Amino acid sequence: MTIDDAGRRPGPKTLAEIAAATGFSRTTVRFVVAGEAERHRIKAETRARIEAYVADHGLVVDHTARSLRTRRSEAIGLVVPDLANPFFARLTAELEERCRASGRVLLTASSHEDPEREGRAVTGLIERGVDGLVVAPCRPPAAFRGLRREGRPALVMVDRAYPASPWPTVVSDNEASAFRLTRRLIEIVRGPVEFFCACPALPSIAARLAGYRAAARVAGVAPAVLTTDRDEVEAGARLIAARLATGGLPRAVMCSSLMMLEGVLGEVAHRFKRVPADLVVGTFDHHPLLEALPIRILSVRQDEAGIAERAFACLIAQIDGGRREAIGHVVEGRLVERGGAA
Amino acid sequence: MTIDDAGRRPGPKTLAEIAAATGFSRTTVRFVVAGEAERHRIKAETRARIEAYVADHGLVVDHTARSLRTRRSEAIGLVVPDLANPFFARLTAELEERCRASGRVLLTASSHEDPEREGRAVTGLIERGVDGLVVAPCRPPAAFRGLRREGRPALVMVDRAYPASPWPTVVSDNEASAFRLTRRLIEIVRGPVEFFCACPALPSIAARLAGYRAAARVAGVAPAVLTTDRDEVEAGARLIAARLATGGLPRAVMCSSLMMLEGVLGEVAHRFKRVPADLVVGTFDHHPLLEALPIRILSVRQDEAGIAERAFACLIAQIDGGRREAIGHVVEGRLVERGGAA
DNA sequence: CTGTTAGCGCTTTCAA
DNA sequence: TTGAAAGCGCTAACAG
C-alpha cells in the first residue's frame, strides 16, 4: 500500500475505481479479481496490470451491493437467550468458526428469554438478509411461521426441542444424560438426590427433569425437585437457602445448570464457611474451577462443537441444497466425574 | 397474517409489492411505513389502507438495498481473540445490547490471537459495510492503517492499549488495579507473591506486570514472575507444575487471568488432593465458583459493561458526529475480596 | 398529498 | 478477449 503525493492514504478501491484507474472495463477487472482470468482468457498483461494496481491500492468488494444483486448475503444469524452464558458463548464461538471457514459472517443477538425480543431479533436479522438463522428459541415453533419469504432464510433450532417442531432441531441428549447422571449420583450416596431445577418449562430442562425422575423411579428412591423460574446464580442461592431452612444439608444435589450450581455452592459455602467435603454434586455443563473444589463432582459436558457442527450442516444443506434435513438431531453429552476424597 | 386460498403463506412483503397491491406508489407506501405519514400529510384513508395491508401481510424492508443507497448499514463489527472467553463473551453481550437498543446489529469474529486472521476478520467486516468496528487487537495499531475508505468505518480499540495508538482506546486500569491487588496480597501474607503471567507481551498484561512489580518494589519484597505464551488453562497447570518441581507451594499466588488461575488451582488440587486452605490467591476477572473455594481469594473485576458503554459511545460519536473522541479511556476495575477462613 | 426518476456497486447477460 | 446495459430494492430529490 503506497501513500500518494499529498500524503493521503487513499484506502482500498472499488471495482469501478480500479476499472477507471487502469482503463479496463468493470467486467474485465472483476474477472481478474475473482480469479476467473484463466477461464475468460484475459490477456496476461491486462491481468498483471490490474493485479499490480490492486496490490498497490487494495480492493474492497462491496458485499452489500453484491448481496442485493445475488440475493445472498453469506451471513448467518444467531439468536440465543444470552451471549454471556458460557454454553451459548461456546456455541457462538463454534458457529462463528464454521462461518469464517466458509467465508460467511455471523450476526448475533440475545433474546434474554423474552419472546418479544426474540421476535424482533429474528425479524431484524431477516431484514439484514441472512441466508440462515440459528435460534435457541424461547417461543414455541408456531411463532416462527410466516416470517420467511419463499423458504428464506434457512432455519435451524438448537438447544430446545419443542414438540412437533417443523424445523430441524439440534439438541443434547438431555433426558438420557440426566438419567445417567442421576443414576450415578444415587449409586454413590446410596440414597436420594435433590434436583435444583431452573426453568422446568423449557424443553431442554423438562427433558432433564424427566431423566431425573426416571432414574429415581428405577432406583426406587423418592424424587425431590426444587424449581425456580430464572436460571440465575441468585435464584440457585435462594432455592438452597429455602431448602436449608427446612432441614439439614442434602447428601447429594443435582443442578440443572452451572448457574444453579454456582448459586447453590456459593450459598452453602457462605452458610457453612466451606463446602462440606462429603457433599456430592451433579450438574450440567462443566467448568475448570469445579476441579479445584474439595468435593465430588459429576458433570454432563455438552458438546458445543458437535451441536454447532450439526446445526451448521443442516443450515448449509437447506441453503445450498434447498432440501430440508431430518428434523431431530441429538448430540451426546459426556459424563465426567471428578474429585471426591470420598 | 392470513394464509391465502392456495394454503401458501405468502410471507412478508417488500415495499414494491405493497405498493403494487394497494395501488399507491412506493414513495407513499414508504412514508406510511416509515411513520412519516403525518409529516407528509398522507390522507388518512390512504394510510389506513396501507397499514391494514401491512398488518395483514407483514412487511420486511430490505436492509441490504437500503444500505447500498444510504451508505449506512446500521451494523457494528466486533473482533476479539476468542468469543468463548468469559470476559469477551460479556463484552460481546454488552455491546450487542447497545446495538439492539439503537437499532443496530452486531457482527462478531474471533482472531484467536492470530494477526492474519484478525486482518481477514477486519476486512471481511469492512466489506460487509459495518458503520463501526470494535477490536481487541492482537496487532499493533499500524496494521489498521490504510484499511479504511474516507474514515469509514469508525474504529475503536478495546482491552489493549498499544503505545501511541492513533485510535480511541478503551481499557481497564490494569496497572493501577494490579498494584492494589499485589499490595493487598503482600499485606495479607506479609511476604512475597508469585505472579503466574500469560502473554506478557500484550499491552494489558504488560500493564498488570508493571503494577505488580511496582507494588513489590514499594513493599520491599522480591518480585517472582513465571510467564507463558498462551493464556490457557493447560498453560497455567504446566507453569505451576514446573514451579512445584523446584520447591514447596507458594504462600500467595497471583494470576494474570481466570484461565491461568483455573490451571494453577486445578493442578494444585490434583497434587495435594485439595487446595490448601491457607493459600491466598489473587486474580483478574471474577467467577461465582471462586466463592465456593475454601481459600482466600482476591479478584479484580473488570467492568465489561463500562468498557462496552465507553467503546460504543466513542463509536457513535465518530459515526454520527464525525468527530474523533479522546484517544485514551480507562475504565476502573473493582477489587473484591472473598472467603478466607484465614 | 402523491408520483417519477435517478442512482448506490455489484452481477449477469448479451453484444462486439 | 473486452465492453455495455439492465436491474437487485431501496432512498432522495424533485415534480406535479
List descriptors.
homodimer; 434 Repressor (Amino-terminal Domain); Rossmann fold; 3 domains; six-stranded parallel beta sheet; six-stranded mixed beta sheet; 11 helices; DNA-binding
Condensed summary:
Two copies of one chain form a homodimer. The first copy, chain A, has helices spanning 15-22, 26-33, 44-57, 63-70, 86-101, 115-127, 174-189, 203-219, 233-245, 258-272, 304-321, and strands at 75-80, 105-110, 132-135, 154-158, 169-172, 194-198, 224-228, 252-255, 280-284, 296-301, 328-331, 334-338.
Write the SSE topology.
Two copies of one chain form a homodimer.
Chain A: H1 15-22, H2 26-33, H3 44-57, H4 63-70, E1 75-80, H5 86-101, E2 105-110, H6 115-127, E3 132-135, E4 154-158, E5 169-172, H7 174-189, E6 194-198, H8 203-219, E7 224-228, H9 233-245, E8 252-255, H10 258-272, E9 280-284, E10 296-301, H11 304-321, E11 328-331, E12 334-338
Helix pairs in contact in A: 1-2, 1-3, 5-11, 7-8, 9-10
The structure holds a DNA duplex (16 and 16 nucleotides).
Describe the protein.
The structure is a homodimer of 342-residue chains. With 342 residues, chain A is α/β, with parallel strands linked by helices. Chain A has 3 domains: 15-61, 434 Repressor (Amino-terminal Domain), CATH 1.10.260; 72-171 and 304-332, Rossmann fold, CATH 3.40.50; 174-303, Response regulator (Rossmann fold). Chain A has 11 helices and 12 strands. Chain A has helices spanning 15-22, 26-33, 44-57, 63-70, 86-101, 115-127, 174-189, 203-219, 233-245, 258-272, 304-321, and strands spanning 75-80, 105-110, 132-135, 154-158, 169-172, 194-198, 224-228, 252-255, 280-284, 296-301, 328-331, 334-338. A 6-stranded parallel β-sheet of chain A has the order 2-1-3-4-5-11, sandwiched between helices. In chain A, α8 links the parallel β6 and β7 (224-228). In chain A, α5 (86-101) packs across α11 and α7 runs parallel beside α8 (203-219). Chain A is elongated, with a radius of gyration of 27 Å. Residues 1-9 of chain A have low confidence and may be disordered. Chains A and B meet through α4, α5, β2, α6 and α10 of A and α4, α5, β2, α6 and α10 of B. The structure holds a DNA duplex (16 and 16 nucleotides).
